[in-house]
């Protein structure tokens, strides 16, 4: 195709010679060879534009891939569009037939067409000789060992097709079509439609078998988590925090009533069942963090709390109780990615680096922590009272700036790829930051936040969405590429303090509120309609 995709205007031939693009007219047979099939000149006078020729070639390639060779030949003959340069077509056939001597002749003819000239010809020749060598000589004790050690599929069409695909990288697409080019273009079109779909939250098959190409892709709001599927009533006071386990099978909720409750999660039926209550926290449970191993939970309290608990979530036993000084305020925590170490801190200036056995490994003095997130096993991000987020390297004991806001940072969270940060800013709402480039990407609209602590989250398919609670009793969900909310969930009666998305079920999220409840949200078709029934806890009810 021409660089700008322009088409022929007056039927004159292109200035490019035949060796830069398959020629039209007269009609051709398979592999670009010219033939006389009785078609009259008047039947072949239609001049196709550049884009039309490309489309014909793509259709012909796709038909051949489906095994409709005669249909493809008829298309080639009638249109006069050769699918590939004749030498490239011969080269492909000789490679697939294992005629290595003939491929050497083809390479000499293709030399002027190869992108990198003689240097690329040498690389192509090496790939051909490598395939020939592997097919002729067993350098291992068995065929299986040979295939494993050389990452080779064995003699035959599979390995030769892979060889063709590697060789095609050296040839312009006008000479030899890339494999399955039509399918690639359709896949790209579908991906673009999914990106534009505000409610796309369902994994689709990569082979396009689960969609229709006859209409644009669009998801309805009913397929998106927008209704309450269950209300959990077990807490007796404000619920401050909630978090699903990394495997999505359990949910931990913490409350002003001094209780940490662990729930069993059934993602198939969107049902949450009470497992156990842990009530050893005299100041309440303000923050919980699941270990990457899905076993341990870090539990912090409000500002008055000077200790941190590590629970075994299966047995309910306290594994460790970390307590340094009575004047400490330890309100935030984050596990390192290895699940063996963690950091804790608070607004009074304590910032500890600890291991799972409760040992304090290092300390950073004077950091008034407003939130924590680990990037790896060494570097931690911490928000402080100077409206900023800085990085702290516990290996080198150096810090570096990352984010600077104009207003107090209340909380923040980092996505799974450690590329984005979602920051809750006092009186400003939620801001999305790029951690690598250290730039503000987006300010999300709609949420109401003054100076309450509200925890937000990433979630949904590929973590394409962000969600946050709000002081107007609602849950707001945004697509991370759109500033306006795609969904506003109503049901709570007081401030929503925390929202967390199930990491393994893109359609399930939980919200915790000052009204003393935890709500489970899901798509409309997951709504359980068992009126007046209770879960096994006797306190949790379906809507």
TrEMBL record:
Please give the biological process terms from Gene Ontology that the record holds: proteasome-mediated ubiquitin-dependent protein catabolic process
Q: Does the keyword Repeat apply?
A: yes
* InterPro entries for this protein: LisH (IPR006594), WD40/YVTN_repeat-like_dom_sf (IPR015943), WD40_repeat_dom_sf (IPR036322), WD40_rpt (IPR001680), WD_repeat-ST_regulator (IPR051350)
Q: Where are the WD repeats?
A: 232-273, 489-521
Q: Single GO cellular component annotation?
A: GID complex
Location(s), subcellular:
Cytoplasm
Cite the record's Polar residues compositional bias ranges.
1-12, 29-45
Q: Which UniProt keyword terms apply here?
A: Cytoplasm, Repeat, WD repeat
Q: Which coarse location class applies to the principal site listed for this UniProt protein?
A: cytoplasm
What residue spans carry the region label Disordered?
1-45
Which Pfam family, just one, is annotated for this protein? Answer: WD40
Q: Which PANTHER family match?
A: WD REPEAT PROTEIN 26-RELATED, WD REPEAT-CONTAINING PROTEIN 26
Any idea what this protein is called? WD repeat-containing protein 26-like
Recorded source organism is Plakobranchus ocellatus
């Amino acid at each position: 195709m021409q660089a700008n995709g322009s088409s022929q205007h007056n039927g004159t031939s292109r200035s490019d010679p035949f060796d830069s693009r398959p020629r039209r007219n007269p009609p051709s047979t398979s592999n670009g060879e010219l033939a006389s099939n009785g078609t009259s000149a008047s039947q072949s006078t239609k001049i196709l534009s550049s884009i039309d020729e490309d489309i014909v070639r793509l259709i012909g390639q796709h038909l051949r891939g489906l095994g409709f060779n005669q249909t493809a030949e008829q298309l080639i003959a009638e249109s006069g569009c050769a699918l590939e340069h004749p030498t490239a077509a011969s080269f492909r056939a000789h490679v697939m037939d294992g005629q290595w001597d003939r491929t050497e002749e083809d390479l000499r003819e293709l030399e002027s067409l190869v992108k990198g000239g003689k240097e690329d010809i040498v690389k192509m020749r090496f790939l051909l000789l490598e395939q020939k060598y592997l097919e002729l000589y067993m350098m291992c004790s068995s065929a299986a060992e040979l295939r494993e050690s050389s990452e080779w599929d064995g003699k035959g069409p599979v390995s030769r097709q892979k060889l063709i695909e590697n060789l095609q990288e050296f040839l312009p697409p006008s000479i030899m079509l890339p494999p399955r080019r039509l399918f690639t273009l359709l896949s790209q079109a579908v991906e673009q439609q999914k990106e534009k779909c505000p409610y796309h939250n369902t994994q689709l098959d990569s082979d396009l078998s689960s969609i229709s190409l006859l209409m644009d892709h669009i998801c309805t709001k009913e397929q998106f988590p927008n209704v309450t599927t269950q209300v959990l009533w077990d807490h007796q006071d404000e619920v401050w925090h909630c978090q699903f386990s990394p495997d999505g099978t359990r949910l931990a909720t913490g409350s002003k009533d001094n209780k940490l409750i662990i729930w069993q999660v059934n993602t198939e039926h969107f049902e949450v069942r009470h497992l156990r209550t842990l009530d050893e926290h005299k100041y309440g449970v303000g923050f919980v963090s699941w270990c990457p191993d899905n076993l341990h939970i870090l539990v912090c309290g409000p500002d008055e709390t000077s200790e941190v608990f590590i629970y075994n979530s299966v047995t309910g036993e306290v594994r460790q109780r970390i307590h340094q000084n009575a004047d400490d305020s330890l309100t935030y925590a984050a596990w390192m990615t290895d699940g063996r170490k963690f950091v804790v801190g608070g607004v009074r200036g304590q910032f500890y680096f600890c291991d799972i056995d409760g040992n304090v490994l290092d300390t950073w003095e004077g950091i008034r922590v407003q939130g924590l997130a680990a990037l790896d096993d060494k570097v931690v991000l911490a928000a402080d009272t100077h409206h900023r987020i800085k990085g702290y390297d516990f290996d080198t004991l150096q810090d570096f700036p990352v984010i600077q806001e104009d207003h107090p940072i209340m909380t923040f969270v980092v996505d799974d790829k450690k590329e984005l940060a979602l920051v809750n800013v006092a009186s400003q709402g939620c801001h999305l930051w790029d951690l690598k480039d250290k730039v503000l990407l987006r300010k999300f609209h709609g949420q109401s936040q003054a100076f309450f602590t509200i925890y937000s989250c990433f979630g949904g398919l590929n973590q394409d969405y962000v969600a946050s609670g709000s002081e107007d009793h609602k849950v707001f969900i945004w697509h991370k590429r759109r500033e306006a909310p795609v969904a506003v969930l109503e049901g709570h009666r007081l401030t929503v303090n925390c929202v967390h998305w199930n990491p393994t079920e893109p359609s399930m999220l939980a919200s915790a509120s000052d009204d003393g409840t935890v709500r489970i949200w899901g798509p409309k078709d997951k709504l359980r309609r068992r009126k007046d029934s209770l879960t096994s806890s006797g306190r949790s009810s379906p809507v």
